[in-house]
Design goal:
The structure is a single chain. The protein has about 425 residues and is an alpha+beta fold. The chain is about 25% helix and about 35% strand. The protein has helices spanning about 5-40, 65-90, 315-320, 375-400; strands spanning about 100, 115-125, 125-140, 140-145, 150-155, 160-165, 165-175, 185, 205-210, 220-230, 235-245, 250-260, 265-275, 280-285, 295-305, 305-315, 330-340, 345-350, 350-360. The strands form four sheets. Strands 1, 14, 15, 17, 18 and 19 form a six-stranded antiparallel sheet that branches. It is extended. The model is unreliable at about 1-40 (pLDDT under 50).
Length: about 425
């Protein structure tokens, strides 16, 4: 057969082989794809990370927020808040501002107790030492003309054992600002000898006394700072004591005290000789016959010059509600002349420490059980009651079938 005749046959044969190869490759890929598809649809391994959301439900989808329930919750909360405001004011205003249970003001029950602190030892440069703790005490913060203040300090370790301490320097100086001239510096002796303000000798506590009227600070009005330098535990440290001093007395007590049962309350009248007229604020503490703190009595009014009476009142309903054991004792009276738009803002009265007067009233007869009434109280109660009533009305209009939360107080709103 001629060569030209064989060429078409070879070409057709080659094409046939190619088609067969392509078909085989297609079949292979198809089978591989099926295997891959089977592999792709296999169950994934369990998640190992944190699951933030639960599995979605197969039917129904996510729950839709209930706007009505949220609105009702808000209205109920408004009812509770307005009711609480009304009841709190109703209860807190049963007695006048000037005659309150001392339990409401426990920080004022014993004003003449020393102010004590314990802190890590402060070192120059702003550092501190946790290995040494410094105990400090001062007998008072406010100091009237002629009064003195006692300071004391002691160093201890973390186990409470005394660390030897040596006071190297103690200076008192009035704090001045701006263009004011610096005041004199007054050296204070500190000792651990059991004399003066130091009650026990050799116990590691050092005490000193500042009497401004007997020093170059006699005429200074304001804050007097005492800086005490010492060494303890092999390191240098310092402590600061501040007092607010009044160099002149705006008024003085005459020592005359009387009592009277008036309008159902027990009143104490203290005679004050006023040199500088103005608004005076005076506070006294009242104990029952067993010495238990009972009431805080306050005077806040304008007094003219000359002999004036300061009335400290124990309200009748406070007496009937508290039923203290009689007779009552007035003690620890302090006060000041308020100076508006001035710094310092007060001129201190000499304090009356301890027992001032024991009442002669032995019976609760004549004390009134009526709550305190005033234009201010009526106005506030009316406003609070209005707010509460409106909140309840909004809740009732929104959800008439549901009852409002119960009130926190028994007395209904007006």
């Amino acid at each position: 057969m001629p060569t030209e005749a064989r060429k078409p046959r070879r070409l057709a044969w080659s094409i046939g082989l190619g088609i067969a190869a392509l078909a085989a490759a297609g079949l292979y890929l198809a089978r591989g794809g099926e295997a891959g598809a089977e592999h792709a649809t296999a169950a994934p391994p369990p998640a190992s990370g944190p699951q933030f959301f639960a599995k979605l439900p197969e039917q129904g989808g996510l729950p839709v927020p209930d706007g009505r329930e949220e609105r009702r919750r808000q209205l109920v909360e408004q009812v509770r808040e307005t009711d609480q405001a009304y009841c709190s004011y109703l209860e807190g205003s049963r007695y006048p501002h000037e005659s309150q249970p001392i339990a409401r003001n426990p920080d004022q029950a014993h004003p003449n107790q020393p102010v004590t602190e314990m802190n890590p030892m402060r070192t120059p440069g702003g550092g501190s030492s946790d290995k040494v703790l410094l105990q400090t005490s001062q007998s008072r913060v406010y100091l009237a003309a002629g009064e003195a203040v006692a300071f004391s300090l002691r160093a201890v370790d973390a186990q409470g054992q005394t660390v030897p301490l040596v006071v190297t320097r103690a200076l008192a100086q009035g704090m001045t600002y701006g263009a004011s001239r610096p005041t004199a510096q007054v050296a204070l002796p500190f000792a651990d000898d059991g004399g003066g303000a130091d009650p026990v000798a050799g116990d590691g506590a050092f005490a000193g006394v500042l009497s401004p009227a007997q020093t170059g600070l006699a005429g200074f009005h304001g804050t007097i700072r005492t800086e005490v330098r010492y060494t303890a535990g092999g390191r240098s440290g310092f402590a600061l004591f501040d007092v607010i001093y009044t160099p002149t007395l705006p008024a003085s007590w005459t020592g005359q005290v009387r009592e009277a049962t008036e309008n159902g309350s027990l009143n104490f009248y203290l005679r004050l000789d006023v040199r500088q007229p103005g608004r005076y604020v005076v506070t006294g503490r009242v104990d029952d016959a067993r010495g238990k703190p009972f009431a805080l009595a306050t005077f806040n009014d304008v007094l003219g010059a000359g002999a004036q009476d300061v009335k400290l009142s124990v309200f009748g309903k406070l007496l009937t509600d508290g039923a203290p054991q009689l007779p009552l004792v007035l003690r620890d009276v302090d006060g000041y002349l308020l100076r508006e738009n001035a710094d310092p803002d007060r001129l201190l009265l000499p304090r009356l420490e301890g027992k001032v007067y024991a009442s002669k009233t032995q019976s609760p007869k004549g004390f009134s059980d009526a709550e305190w009434q005033s234009e201010e109280r009526s106005r506030y109660l009316t406003e609070f009651a209005k707010d509460r009533k409106e909140a309840r009305a909004r809740l009732a209009a929104f959800d008439p079938g549901q009852a409002a939360p119960p009130s926190a107080c028994a007395q209904p709103a007006g």
